[in-house]
Amino acid sequence: MDERVRFVARLLGGEKMAVLCREFDISRKTGYKISQRYKDFGAVGLTDRSRRPYRHANQLPMQVETLIVRLRREHPSWGTPKIREKLRRLHNEVQTPAISTVHAVLDRHGLVSRGRRRRRHKAQGTRLSQPRMPNDLWCADYKGEFMLADRRYCYPLTISDFATRYLFSCEALATTEETYAFVVFERAFKDFGLPKAIRTDNGVPFASPHALFGLSKLAVWWLRLGIQIERIKPGHPTQNGRHERIHLTLKKEATKPAAHNLLQQQARFDDFIECYNCDRPHQALDMKYPTELYRPSPRPYRGLHELAYPFHDRTITVTQCGRICMAPYKIMLSTVFAGQNVGVKQVGDKIWLVSFMDYDLGFFDEETTRLEPTVNPFEAKVLPMCPE
């Protein structure tokens, strides 16, 4: 504005328009425009004006927007397509707005109900057993990572028997990725058989906060093997206290000082397992050795059998992206079930039930094709499996 005031002042002082325009680096058209604005409005005409256009070519007329809002308030259950069609029938002389435009109008006025968002699974823990026999319950966890002499981190994965304190495995791993955990557990299953249940915390790879019911691929594999899942409550490591006590002994006897690399650290862990199971008396076991009390499981590991659902309408293999493809529908389940067979059964008009083994996972309808999880699939066994 100051530049315009000086321009007009010098113009009124008798200076030529062309000379002033060259000095202020503006065109003569702009110079005459500034001069005319001063003559019409005085000093107010020299202030900055809004560059907002007077009209928008595609803006919805206010009358049409008002009618859309009124129709929704008169018929709260009507969706966007119905409101658009009613608007077309009432005023066919006016160009009918797109469905997305009608939805945007309703959204601006707070007339769109937000669907229930799928929340991140909040871990609550499960019922915990107190078994007294070997292999009724195994405990697993990662001891806190520590740095080796070669500046790499070590993540020890430990597996023990709850009743006898027998330490099956203490594996020096470079990561907590589930691929390596599969190998460790499979070796333990081959050597000692299958337990009835495994107790862990809610961390990766034992659980997944973003997957259905907090399951992970490792947990799904355990279920396939007939192993029940027990999880402690978040922030309650004492619920897995026996196993945590092993970690304390492990830390004192096998990690200080740390070895140079993973191979040397694994050799220390192997020596620790031998001493812990066969040479170290345990006060909680009346000064006995774990190897004196432990016996291998009577359930040998034989891999996975094919899942079948004879009491369901269909048996469908979940795709690698976690979908159930049931033409023409595609229902997102979870990637943790990728490659697994699930049972699908129609339980109502366009309503389908999805089950995995003995567990009901949720329902979906043919219109939204969105899975709505059941309340607690690991308590109610609704549909039996076929006999082996």
Tell me about this structure:
By secondary structure, the chain is of the alpha+beta class. The protein folds into four domains: 2-46; 62-108; 138-293, Nucleotidyltransferase, domain 5, CATH 3.30.420.10; 314-373, no CATH class. It is built from eleven helices and 13 strands. Strands 1, 2, 3, 4, 5 and 6 form a six-stranded mixed sheet that branches. A hairpin with a 2-residue loop joins strand 8 and strand 9. Helix 1 (2-12) crosses helix 3 and helix 2 (17-23) crosses helix 3. The longest helix is centred in the C-terminal third of the chain and has 17 residues, at 262-278. The N and C termini lie far apart (89 Å). Residues 379-388 have low confidence and may be disordered.
Topology:
Elements: H1 2-12, H2 17-23, H3 28-41, H4 62-74, H5 80-90, H6 99-108, E1 138-142, E2 146-147, E3 153-161, E4 167-173, H7 178-192, E5 197-200, H8 217-224, E6 228-231, H9 241-254, H10 262-278, H11 290-293, E7 314-317, E8 323-326, E9 329-332, E10 341-348, E11 351-356, E12 359-365, E13 372-373
Parallel strand pairs: 1-5, 5-6
Antiparallel strand pairs: 1-3, 2-3, 3-4, 7-10, 8-9, 10-11, 11-12, 12-13
